[in-house]
Amino acid sequence: MRSPEDELAELDAASLRRTLRPVDSPQQPESIIYQKEVTSFASNDYLGLATHPALRQAATEAIETWGTGSGASRLITGSLSPHRQLEEFIAKAKKTESAITFANGYTTSVGTLSALLEKGDTVILDKLSHASLVDGARLSGATVRVFPHNNLDKLERLLQSTSQSAEPNRRILIVTESVFSMDGDLAPLREIVALKEKYHALLLVDEAHALGIYGSHGMGLAEQLGCSSGIDFHMGTLGKSAGSAGGYIAGSKAFIDLIVNKARSFIYSTAAPPAQAAASLAALKLIQSGEGAALREKLWSNLRLFSELTDSPLPESAIIPWMVGDSQKALDLSNQLFDQHSILAPAVRYPTVPRNTARLRITITAAHSEKNITQLCEILNSLA
Ligand code: PMP
C-alpha cells in the first residue's frame, strides 16, 4: 500500500505540494502571516466587506437572537428567517422567482449540477470552469462536453451535435463563469445567451468573482451586460465580495424546488449558521447601496492605478494573473515577494490551473490603499 509520505514526496518533487500558512489577522491588506507584517494581495474579499461594521453587527445580532448553529439540514429543522430573508433578497436582486442558499459555493455547484442532470443529459462546460462545476458535472452522470475557453464557435458546434443526437426531453446545460477565477477574464455572456436560445439549451452562470463588482446594483456581469433574463441559473458565492460565506442559486420556482428535493449537498448537510446568512444579507444590501457603488469605484480606481503604474492594459476584473509557467519558478517568485518585500501574492499551480501555466494570482481590492498598490507595482516592475 502506498504511504502518504511517498505521495507527499511526489508532490514535493513536482513543486505541487501545498501548505497552510498561519495567519493571525482578519481579512485585510495589512496581515500578519508567519508572524510577519505583510501586505496581502491574495484575498477575494474584493470590497473589503469581511471586516465591515455592518456585517459584524448583523452577524453579532443574529448570534444574540438565533445562537450559533442551525441544528440540522434545512429539510429537517426548517428554514430560519435569516435564511428565508436572504433567499428572498437574492431572488429579487437577480429578478428570478426563487433562490436557495447552501453553506458554500462549492457545495452549491456540486449539488445543483447533480440535481439538474442525469444520465442521458448533456452538460457543456467552458474549459476553465471552476473545479466545483466540473465535479458537479461529473457526479451528475450526464455526458460531459468541454469547449475551449470562451470559444463560441466550438460551443456552437457542441450544441449542434448534442441537440441533433439528444433524445427529446433530455436537458442540455451550458455552464460558464462570468469572471474566470484564475485568469480574471470575462465570458462573452450575451453571445452565450444567444446560443443557448438558438439551441433551446439551459444556461448556468457562476458569478463568484463578479458579484459586487459589475452592474449598476453590483449584481454581476450579467446585470452589467443586460442579459440576466437569458440566464436560467444564477450561481454565486457569498464568500468573496460579500465578505461572508455561502453559495446561492437563483432561478425559476420549479427548478429551485427541484434542487431542494434533489441536491444531496443541500439535503444531507447542516444548514449554514443563521449569523452567516444575516451577514450575507447585510453584505448584499450594502453592495446595492450608494456605499457599495463607492467601494466599486474605489476598486476600479485601484485597478486603473495598477494599470498605469505597470504600463499594462486595465484589468477586466480584480484578478490579475502574473504568468510564470513553471511551478517551482512561480513558488520561488511568490516566496521572494514574501521574504524580501513582505508581499503575499500566492503561486497558483496545477491542478488549479493547467500544467505549465503556474502564475502568481494577484487580487486587488477596494481595501488596498494607493500606497499598497504603488509598492506592489514598483516591485513587479523591478522583476520585469
Ligand atoms: N465558483 C468559483 C468560480 C470559485 O472561484 C469558487 C471559490 N474558489 C467557488 C465557486 C466556490 O465557492 P466557495 O468558496 O464559496 O465554496
TrEMBL record:
<dbReference type="Pfam" id="PF00155">
    <property type="entry name" value="Aminotran_1_2"/>
</dbReference>
<dbReference type="InterPro" id="IPR004723">
    <property type="entry name" value="AONS_Archaea/Proteobacteria"/>
</dbReference>
<protein>
    <recommendedName>
        <fullName>8-amino-7-oxononanoate synthase</fullName>
        <ecNumber>2.3.1.47</ecNumber>
    </recommendedName>
</protein>
<keyword id="KW-0093">Biotin biosynthesis</keyword>
<comment type="pathway">
    <text>Cofactor biosynthesis; biotin biosynthesis.</text>
</comment>
<comment type="subunit">
    <text>Homodimer.</text>
</comment>
<dbReference type="InterPro" id="IPR015421">
    <property type="entry name" value="PyrdxlP-dep_Trfase_major"/>
</dbReference>
<feature type="domain" description="Aminotransferase class I/classII large">
    <location>
        <begin position="37"/>
        <end position="379"/>
    </location>
</feature>
<keyword id="KW-0808">Transferase</keyword>
<dbReference type="InterPro" id="IPR015422">
    <property type="entry name" value="PyrdxlP-dep_Trfase_small"/>
</dbReference>
<dbReference type="InterPro" id="IPR015424">
    <property type="entry name" value="PyrdxlP-dep_Trfase"/>
</dbReference>
<dbReference type="GO" id="GO:0030170">
    <property type="term" value="F:pyridoxal phosphate binding"/>
</dbReference>
<dbReference type="InterPro" id="IPR004839">
    <property type="entry name" value="Aminotransferase_I/II_large"/>
</dbReference>
<dbReference type="GO" id="GO:0009102">
    <property type="term" value="P:biotin biosynthetic process"/>
</dbReference>
<dbReference type="InterPro" id="IPR050087">
    <property type="entry name" value="AON_synthase_class-II"/>
</dbReference>
<keyword id="KW-0663">Pyridoxal phosphate</keyword>
<dbReference type="GO" id="GO:0008710">
    <property type="term" value="F:8-amino-7-oxononanoate synthase activity"/>
</dbReference>
<feature type="modified residue" description="N6-(pyridoxal phosphate)lysine">
    <location>
        <position position="240"/>
    </location>
</feature>
